[in-house]
Each structure stands twice: as structure tokens, then as C-alpha cells.
Amino acid sequence: MPQKKVVGTIGDFSIFQVIEILTSKNMNMKEKIFCFTMLLMLVLTACSNNDEPSPINEGSPRDWSFGKDQVEFYVNGVEQSSVTEITVRSLQLEGCGDNAAFPWYDVTLKVKGLLPKNKVFNIQVDADIDRFEGTTIYNGIEYNVTGIYTGNPFEHYKDMGIKVYLEEK
Known about the structure:
11 strands
């Protein structure tokens, strides 16, 4: 006879044994409440989601979609006026040095308007709260990427901006 698959245990009891005990008529109310509490604790711990962001990997205060009026984008010193939006998404890096007050982030810049047909051009950079740097390949050429954020990230987003510079290596 195949055994029942045990999906969780409470001490030496499987969930099936706990349910069997809860439904038996030989238990007083105190014992049923205890077993129900144990079962509830098992279910709650089994349903925890460790993939959700924790405070250490939440985004930067600079995460935002910057519109055309907030964006300056340059390739080898030539402004690219076709860029209509840059969306910033980031994850805080662990081990940011001795001072946790100045964290670094792994940032993706999603640039709209640089590529034809409204395709999004992604640039990976490392950033702090004021500036960023990295490398990327655009049209088959490798570029150093630098940039700055303008405005205070703790005030209204309409007063913020982003400047991105691609310089051929």
C-alpha cells in the first residue's frame, strides 16, 4: 500500500495525524485548541515567501520613470533628443562598505527612444544616490557609461532628472 505523502510535520506528527486528532471525538476542547494552533503555525510558516524583497534589496530613492523634460542623454557628446523616457530600477547591493548610510545599487536604465520602433535599450550600471557608472554595447560598439541624477530624491519627483553620458571606449 502506498504511503501518504507527508507535506509537513509538527514535532513527530504529520499534518494528516494532526487532522485525524482534531476530528476525533476523544479530545477535550483544550487539546483541540492546542492542535489547531500547532496546525495554524505550520501552515503560516509553510506559506512564507522568502523571495519577496527585504529592506536590504529594495530599490533606490531614484527609482522612477523620468520623462522627456527630465532626461538628457548623450552619445560621444552629442545629445540624443529622440530619447523620450528613462526608467530606473535598482536593487541595493550587499556589502556596501563600512558605511551603510551610503549604499550602492545594481541599476537598470530602461531607455526609450534610442532604438528604432520604440524598443527599450537596457543599460546596467552601478550607482549610489547621486551618480552611476558602467559599460554597455550600443550598435556593436562598447561604451563607458557615466551619469548623474539631478534634484533631491527625497522631494517631489517632478523636480528630479537624469543625465546619461555614453563615451566610446
